[in-house]
Amino acid sequence: MQEATLVRAILWGLVMCLVAVPGFAQVEDAPADNRTVIGGGNPLLAAGADAIRAGQYDEGIRLTTLGLERGDNSQSDRAAALSNLCAAYAAKRMPDRAIELCTESIAVSEHNWRAFSNRSYAYWLKGMYAQATADLDVAAAISPNAKQVEQIRAMINEAGLRPRVTLEENQ
Amino acid sequence: MLAGGLAAAAAPLDSPIAARKELDPAGIWACVTYGDQHSARDTRFLVHVTPTRTGSFAIQTSRGAGDWVAIFPWSPEKDELVFTESETGRSFTADLTRATFAGTWSTPVDQGGWWCAQRVGGAEAAARAVQGSALEYFVPPLVPDVSATPRYPRDAVRAAAEGYAVACFFVDATGTILAPEVVELSNEHFRTPTLVATYASRYRPWPNGTGLRPGCRTYSYQLDKTF
After folding, report:
1. Would you say the C-alpha torsion B190, B191, B192, B197 has a positive or negative sign?
2. Is some CB atom of chain B closer than 8 A to the CB atom of A154?
3. 3-class DSSP assignment, residue B134
4. B226 vs A129: CB contact, 8 Å cut-off?
5. Residue B171: what are its φ and ψ, rounded to 5°?
6. Which of A62, B13, B16, B107 is at a distance of 20 to 30 A from B66, taking alpha carbons?
7. What is the value of ipTM here, to two decimals?
8. Contact A161/B at CB under 8 A
């Protein structure tokens, strides 16, 4: 039960990442002179992000895929969209596809901590804790205070660390 | 004199602690030591403190006790007593604000703590000779009967927190652990599981036994990477 709650929290974290993508729906990080661009760069990508955020993963994947087929996306928009797709597939418990998409996103831009974090989560789903840790370390190096990174780190620790208590009698 | 060997210590009138209770260490005490992770060995000893704060010390082995040796220098300070024992070279500091005679020890390269149970009360001990063998006060080592394993706290696993806790306590003749206290703790995560496991443990009873024996346990909490 606790595990399910934890995974829901992580998935919510992944979805929340989608609103923090420049050019889609991010408000707080957008420069003042860039406000007209919010949600307007590629409406399909923005709509896809919204759908994924709402838990409509299939619809989000469809819209984001359509948005990616447009040829005028910036590199950063493309990287963010691929990371969003990665998150959606991870949320659908399809880690192999998620890993492919995150890897593609990282190839486009290696500065997006969310792509590393999302791929880390996908590796966690597959039980590949060493790879998950490696990706999380990169995400943490880029964004040291990201809550999602902390959450995934805790999940990896819980799954991949075996507790041991030894007792010494002081006599 | 209050029950349990506690006496009200005189405090200056302007002290904010006007009626602080201080342990009266007079008596003969059976003690155990615990060390840090580099400690080579634990030691069991007897210590005799007179009402005038003179003292003697005797090492205990698993089968007996050595001779009484005067402790010096013996430095009574406020709320603590400091003494050095020549055989092990350890300097002991007793914290008299604690519930029993206990404190810390150190050498130039090592450090740890100690914990005692009273063997003979102060007034009676004052009349006892502290020369020659201390064998009549010998306290055999405790023999574990049931050792409960602490549960590793989930939050500690998630935080990848490792560490240790030392619990000291008294054991009665039935082998029951009484009044355990966490005396060293590397991380607050480990306090509760240490106490729960200690309470759930037992030692082998001793026949016709009276009095309490001192005991300490060190629990090491470690995480092994599985990937």
Report:
1. positive
2. yes
3. coil
4. yes
5. -125, 130
6. B107
7. 0.83
8. yes
